[in-house]
Amino acid sequence: MSKDRPPGSSPRSHDARPSGADRSCARVSDLLDDFLTRGDAAESGGSDPDDPSPASSPPGGDRSKIPLGADRSKISFGEDRSKISLGEIMDALGDRAFGALLLILSIPNVLPVPGLSTATGVPMILLGAQMAAGRHGPWLPRRMLAASFDRKAFLGVIRRARPWAERVERHLRPRLPAMAGPTAERLLGLAVVVLAVILSLPIVFGNQPPALAIALIALGLMESDGVFVSAGLVAGLLAIVIVAAVLLGLGQAAVAVAQQLIG
């Protein structure tokens, strides 16, 4: 079962992460419930009761006095509440590490939501690289945090995933710790980079397999479940084979068309 971090700790500033990437969420469905609650509150103009920072600076306010978290919330919410940004997603996840963020970003590609593969895949490339480098928590550049998606579509797909999360979490438990520990996490980061690169490519039917593999790896990291991590790696290999076959087929078709045009 997951363990809570000390109050006030954050993976973005924490110097020592316990084994297993994500320890702050007791259940996957709880994570999704919390994320949806915060996302819906932002859409209706509410604020996060756990965050004392204002969602936006007051008119004429001194931005230099706004805490970092509040400043990012300003980027996230802005005036257009029909959009949800990466900054808002990270704020909504709070003190959760790589696993939770990878899961949230992969779900819209598993179900899927058209047009989000590149927008979510590129951040996952960076997150995977940070895992491989041994970084203690996720970080995204300011410009990437400002990238936004349609709020209803994004939250809608997370809501559709909620019943599936309840079924999956019944099978999640700490197993094969070597496959989900800090050392393995670096190697898993490399796998996430490869899968996220494939996910980002504009390939028809090529987004779901790598997204599913990343989601399985994320679930395994969140609950230190090496079985799910292993399943994610197997799914990742299958995703690479599927995408390679699709690319090969497209290449052969392009050659055939070119030959007909030339000949």
Key structural traits:
2 strands; mainly alpha; single chain; 263 residues; 2% strand; two-stranded antiparallel ribbon; 10 helices; 60% helix
Describe this structure in words.
With 263 residues, this protein is mainly α. The chain is built from ten helices and two strands.
What is the strand and helix layout of this fold?
Blueprint: H1 28-43, H2 68-77, E1 83-85, H3 86-93, H4 98-110, H5 117-132, H6 142-145, E2 148-150, H7 151-169, H8 182-200, H9 208-222, H10 226-262
Antiparallel strand pairs: 1-2
Q: Distance between the terminal alpha carbons, to the nearest Å?
A: 65 Å
- Could you give the order of the helices and strands? HHEHHHHEHHHH
**So how many helices?**
10
- Estimate the helix proportion, in percent: 55-70%
Strand neighbour order, sheet with most strands: 1-2
Q: Which structural class matches the secondary elements?
A: mainly alpha
Amount of beta strand: under 5%
Counting DSSP E segments of at least 2 residues, the number of strands comes to 2
What number is the mean pLDDT? 77
Low-confidence stretches: 1-25, 51-78
Shape: globular
The radius of gyration is: 19 Å
Largest sheet: 2 strands, antiparallel
